[in-house]
Structure formats: structure tokens, C-alpha cells
Amino acid sequence: MSNSAVSLRRKIATASDLIAIVRTMKAIAASSINEYENAVSALEDYDRAVQLALLVGLRQSSITNTQTRENENMVAAVIFGSDQGLVGQFNERLVDFAVQTLSEHPCRKRIWTVGERIQTGLENCNLDVDTSFELPNSMSAITAMVSQIRSEIENRRIRGDIGPVYLFHNHPVSGATFEPHCLRLLPLDEVWFSEIAQREWPTQNLPEVIQGRKQAIVAFVQEYIFVSLFRACAESLASENACRLIAMQRAEKNIENQLETLGTDFHRLRQRVIDEELFDVIAGFESYGTATHRP
User: Do residues 222 and 125 touch, judged by C-beta distance below 8 A?
Assistant: First the structure.
């Protein structure tokens, strides 16, 4: 395309429209980061309450889930990725981390993914995806998705289809940076129970579970699983939007530089056209003046 005034105007208009879209995406990403980070912060209080409830129950008795028949030869992994692009190395880093971590388990793997793009990366690494879940697009949709995953885990463990369950997701570190994170969600072994039991009750009055002690502990364990899944999803979405915010900031800067260059070229071209027109007028005037004074 020639650098005519028309083509430059078209390029400037296109870049202006594009930068408006980028700035809108920046605002959405920044708002989403704040929403998901606030959810994770609020979840800490609920998580603390659940663990204190487990502390009370576990100090009075131990728990064994007789309904579960673990399959130690089948590791399940829930991996949170993204559905959309413009997130840099968000999915690639998590895929590499998950593949490396799971390679330490020589047994069979059952992979559950949240997000379409993470699924493609895992399949390229010869990890077959067993089940995929739709990535929530809002805070209110996380609860429904987490309930689906929790039900799937419970049903598979009751049938003896899976053993240990791991969660993989990107975890915000500081600012807009993140790092891959892995949590062994199940089984809740003696090490996990001992860590819970070592926590201190915040007051001198220690409550007791009077009736249905085992049912109460099982219920609180289910809440612990729910909190872990919810936190993993919220942190993953916060990290995803942080990556998108960085990408949009870079895009905005590049477009602004391009607009500045196009604006300079347009003004230079316009000035050259004006100068040429002036030269033509002056040349015509001089020619006319010469012709009128000719004897």
C-alpha cells in the first residue's frame, strides 16, 4: 500500500479503533484481577474456619472413609488453564510444570482440564485428557464448576477408579507475576491430619462435637476440598487476567508508537503536498508575470 494521504488516514483510523479495544480489555482485566484477588482473600477466613472445625473433630477422634477404595495405580490431575489467548506463556509454563511433576509418578494418569487451551498443550505432550470442564467466566460461575469437579472426584474414588488427586494451577506471586503451583488434594493422609491437629484454638474455650462426630468431620473435609478447588480456580483466573493485562499494556504501547509514527508521516506528507502546491502557484505566477511584461 502506497503512503498516500488516504492510506495513512485509513491506517490511523484502524490503529485508533484498535487502541480503544485494547484499553477496554485492559480495564476489564484489571477489574477481574481485583475481583478474583478479593475472593481469594475472603476465602482465607472461610478456610480458617473449616480448619479450626477439623481441629476440634480430629482431636476427639480419627476418621477413615470406608466408602472410598483408592486405586494407587491411577493418579488424577485437575489442571486449570485458559480458554482465550493473549496470555503470554500462561498455559505453556503450566503444561511444562505439570508434565515434569507427573513424570515422577510412573503409574497411569487421568487428566481433567479446565480451559480449552491447556488441553491442547497437554495433548501435544502425549497426555490424554479424560474429562474437560468449562472455564468459569465470572465469579458466580466458579461454585457450580467446583461442585462438578468435586462430584466427579468423589464418584471416581467411590468406584475405585482413581487414587491420589493433584491440583495444578498458576498462582499469583506479586504484582502481575505468577508461578505454577501444585497441591496434593487427596488422599488426606496422616501427615495432613497431623498438620491440622497441631493448630491452636484461638481461645481458651475449646468446643466439642456432641453428636454425629464422624459425619461432621466428613462434611468439613468436603468443605476443605471445595475451598481448595475454589482457591485454585480463582487464583488461576487472577493470574490469567494479570497476564492479559501485561499483554494489553505492551500492545497499547506498540500501537501508541505506531500512531505517533503514522501521524508524523501523515503531517510530513501533507506538508510536502502543500509545498508542492505552493511551488506550482508561485511558478505559475512567475510565468504569468514574465508573459505580461514581454515586449
Answer: no
Asked whether 247 and 85 are in contact (CB, 8 A), the reply is no
Contact at 8 Å (CB) between 76 and 166? yes
- How is the chain split into domains, by residue range? 27-247
Q: Give φ, ψ of 89 to 5 degrees.
A: -95, 25
Whether cis (ω within 30° of 0) applies to the bond prior to 164 is: no
Return per-residue pLDDT of the chain as tens, 295 residues. 445 778 888 888 888 888 899 889 888 888 888 889 888 888 888 888 888 888 777 766 555 444 455 667 889 999 999 988 778 889 999 999 999 999 888 888 899 999 888 988 888 888 888 889 999 988 889 999 999 999 999 888 888 888 889 999 998 887 667 899 999 998 877 777 777 777 777 777 777 777 767 788 788 888 999 999 999 999 999 999 988 888 888 888 998 898 888 888 888 887 777 766 667 666 665 665 565 555 5
CA distance 59 to 272: 86
What is the CATH topology of the domain spanning 27-247? Pyruvate Kinase; Chain: A, domain 1 (3.40.1380)
Q: Taking the CA of residue 94 as centre, how many other CA atoms within 13 Å lie in the half-sphere pointing to its CB?
A: 32
CA 36 distance to own-chain centroid: 10
